[in-house]
Amino acid sequence: MLNIDLHCHSSVSDGVLSPREVVERAISNGVDVLALTDHDDVAGLAEARAAAEPAELSFIPGVEISVSWGGQTVHIVGLRIDPAHPEFAAGLQEIRAGRTERAHRMADELAAVGIEGAFEGASSHAANKQIIGRTHFARWLVEQGHAPDLRTTFRRFLTRGNPGYVEHQWTSLENAVGWIRASGGMAVVAHPGRYAFNARELHLLLDAFRALGGEGIEVVTGSHHPSEYGKFADLARAFGLLASRGADFHAPGEGVDLGRLPPLPHYCQPVWKAWPEVILKQTAPTLAATT
Ligand code: AMP
Ligand code: MN
Ligand code: MN
Ligand code: MN
Fold it and tell me: Among 1, 71, 66, which Cα is nearest to 39's?
């Protein structure tokens, strides 16, 4: 069975490895098909593709778009997108501008509790100054001794009700799915188990997502406990959505590593079932054996 990992981050967003290093790590972890899905930016895709080219790895251009829906932030992954599509590229550019403005407000909130210099601090952890996010603030807060690790930092800071958190209006679900589809890609709801929705709200989200032309949902992700895989596999089936698998890898030693999650439950219809790059790989050994 192919090892397919369709969600990870490089230093273009809040990961710590460069796009090339992400691809090299995926290869050494035995990944056969990899999507790089940086938050709200596609600037790493060319480097990642170039790194994958001479290797056996099939590379899928991706993105993870920040959306506001139902009073929460929801992440929509786009797979097999065309990063050069004008409407798609312009949409992401707008989100990045909002992100920078938000980072200044977050720093103001931290300053209000006596933590000065957070914008510059977070920025020093961001290789791409257009994508400064909560993870960069968290890494800086740990470095400054305000918390022992990232998990604790997100419990004490940067989350609703805690210092450094600000409300932010991301783009709409309609825009995110629309841009992904316009660029030829497939839209996938990221880590559905992470949202503070009740069952009814989650169903409303999936209905709205499907009505807009969304096609997939993550079932096996680093953000789900293994005991949740069945629940989201059932949800995928009930809503006629294809299932995805991705570690949501950010850094060595943080969370799940590339390609190290269990496979999708056997009854799932995977997002890659009709992808030529996967079908070719699946049939390649047979072809080789018969020639
Ligand atoms: P942002 O898009 O700037 O709001 O940042 C969201 C990112 O913060 C997510 O993609 C994760 O990488 C990270 N994050 C959010 N919550 C946590 C948490 N509890 N522990 C560790 N990382 C988190
Ligand atoms: Mn992240
Ligand atoms: Mn996410
Ligand atoms: Mn992610």
Answer: 66
Which residues partner with 39 through β-bridges? 64
Strand partners, 218: 244
Both structure tokens of 194? 């992470």
* The model's pTM: 0.97
Ligand 1 neighbour 151 (Cβ under 6 A): yes
191-197, Cβ contacts within 8 angstroms, sequence gap of 24 or more: 191/75, 191/218, 191/221, 191/223, 191/224, 191/248, 192/217, 192/218, 192/232, 192/235, 193/221, 193/223, 193/224, 193/225, 193/228, 193/231, 193/232, 194/223, 195/72, 195/74, 196/72, 197/70, 197/72
Taking only the tens place, the pLDDT of each residue in 87-118 is: 999 999 999 999 999 999 999 999 999 999 99
- Give the CA distances from residue 56 to residues 1, 22, 160, 190, in Å, rounded to whole numbers and listed in that order: 15, 15, 43, 27
For ligand 4, the distance from its centroid to the CA atom of residue 179, given in whole angstroms, is: 18
Distance CA 154, CA 158 (A): 6
DSSP state of 194: G
- How crowded is residue 143: how many other Cβ atoms within 10 Å of its Cβ? 11
- The preferred substitution site among 65, 134, 151 for testing ligand 1, maximizing ligand atoms within 8 Å of CB, is 134
